[in-house]
Design goal:
The protein has helices at about 15-30, 40-50, 70-80; strands at about 10, 35, 60, 65-70. It is of the alpha+beta class. The protein has one domain (about 10-80): Glutaredoxin, CATH 3.40.30. It has a four-stranded mixed sheet, with helices on both faces.
Length: about 90
């Protein structure tokens, strides 16, 4: 089943190469996203890590659903599990 992306939110850090790659991915696809720097929003980061048992960044949400990190989202895009109606 394919999903149309409406909203993307990336929790990441400027020092993280996978976070930079995630931002580049969505920018290159011309998909708007919200970027939250976890170094400036530690409480949000801690809450997400606890809720989803996820210790690394980026943490990528699509339409409010946690989809994983950069590698997870890239694989879902390649396989067609996530797509964009542009």
């Amino acid at each position: 089943m394919q999903n149309s992306i409406k909203r993307v939110k990336i929790y990441g850090a400027e020092w993280c190469p996978y976070c930079v790659s995630a931002k580049k991915l969505f920018t290159n696809l011309e998909i708007d996203f919200d970027y939250i720097d976890v170094d400036q929003h530690q409480n949000e980061k801690d809450q997400i890590q606890k809720q989803y048992n996820w210790d690394t960044v980026p943490m990528i949400f699509i339409d409010g659903k946690f989809e994983g990190g950069f590698s997870d989202v890239s694989a879902k895009l390649r396989s067609g599990k996530i797509n964009f109606d542009i």
